[in-house]
Amino acid sequence: MPWAVGGLRLGRDWVVAPDPAALRARWAALTGSEGAERERLFRPSRSRRPDAGAAALPGQRSAATARFADAPGPCPDPVRVLREPFDEQWLLPDQRLIDTARPELWRVRDEHQMFLVEAPDPLVTAHLPAGRLGRIRPLHRRPGGAEPNLAPGLLPLLGAHYGGWVTPEDVLCWILAAGRPGPRGYEVPLAADPAHWRAGLELGHRLLTVQLRGARGGEPPRLPGGRRPYVRAAVTAWPHELAYDAGSETLSLGTGTVSPVPAGAWEYEAQGVRVLPAWFAARTAHRGPEAGGLAALGPVEWPQSWTSELLALVTTLALLAELAPERAAFEPGPGPGMSAGALHAAGVLPPPAWARRPASVLDHQEEGPGGQFALL
User: Do 128 and 110 touch, CB atoms closer than 8 A?
Assistant: First the structure.
């Protein structure tokens, strides 16, 4: 996957939130302020200030391009993003507010796209990653899934070697199953035996299905009956602490409880951080003493939708914890796999320079600062 992009740098924490209504309230507070107060709430940086304009993000037709200080425009509709591993939140898609928005990623963001996030354990998401997650490799270089972000010639070579049609999603599944961190970066060995290739695809497809969490029209992953987490006691007051009882497999959020929650879900880590406590902390941060400015605007009561998200997250983490030993034990097969020399001989490696850059686009509907057309 030659084309890789650095992560988004938001520059200000108030442009993202677990609750879309909070973002609209923050926008209203910012646009309703003036002068020094607006400057303070905006939190200017070297890249973004209220008196500077920016291009509209591709695909966000409602975004204004005039200087924010002159004409903020209506609040853009918040979009779903991946803020932290397995933590889906909402973002104000206005490039005037984001230090480094990576418009090349927005240009290829659609219902066909998937993003691979580089990490010790790679993560795939259908939502645009918008946090400090690592470099991002889109599966497709153009909208509509028209061109895979793979070394040219790789798919025909794999198809001929393994005796069947190989798709870009197959390669993604193989990466999830067989890829490992190595001394030269993230390494993906290719199996010599077609049977091992098919076994890796089967494991990778299960990992991908769980990680996508029902996105792209798929069914959300479920635990078997009797193991599915349920709300045993509703969250009736704002929870200030998340606790877990291993004996009863119960997760407590203040007065609310959820069970059964397998220990594997509670202990699951991504990038060295336990996912469930981090998810909870992200939803209670605006009520802490360190919160201030626009970031302090959030829900007054715990939204019921967050409890539903928690149930889905517990299911995802429990399933990934069950798959972890199988993935750790997976080997591409006995004997040497397809060598780098074979890929060089076939002209697949090294990929051409153009494959490492975004695909060229000429679209008069994309607007630059002040409303002029952008030619890309």
Answer: no
| CB contact at 8 A, 374 and 367 | yes
Name the pTM for this structure. Answer: 0.93
Phi and psi, residue 346, nearest 5°: -85, -5
Q: What is the pLDDT of residues 137-149, one digit of tens each?
A: 999 999 999 899 9
What is the C-alpha to C-alpha distance for residues 214 and 126, in angstroms, rounded to an integer?
10
CA distance readout (Å), 54 to 99, 189, 337, 374: 10, 42, 48, 11
**Is residue 123 a contact partner of residue 117, using CB atoms and an 8 Å limit?**
yes
pLDDT at residue 284, as a whole number: 94
Residues 256, 236 contacting (CB under 8 angstroms): yes
> Phi and psi dihedrals of 138, rounded to 5?
-65, 150
Using 50 as the pLDDT threshold, list the residues of the chain that sit under it: 364, 375
Residue that the structure tokens 């002209």 belong to: 347
- 58-97 confidence digits (pLDDT tens): 987 666 788 999 999 999 999 999 999 999 999 999 999 9
Neighbours of 213 (CB within 10 A): 19
Give the pLDDT of residue 18: 97
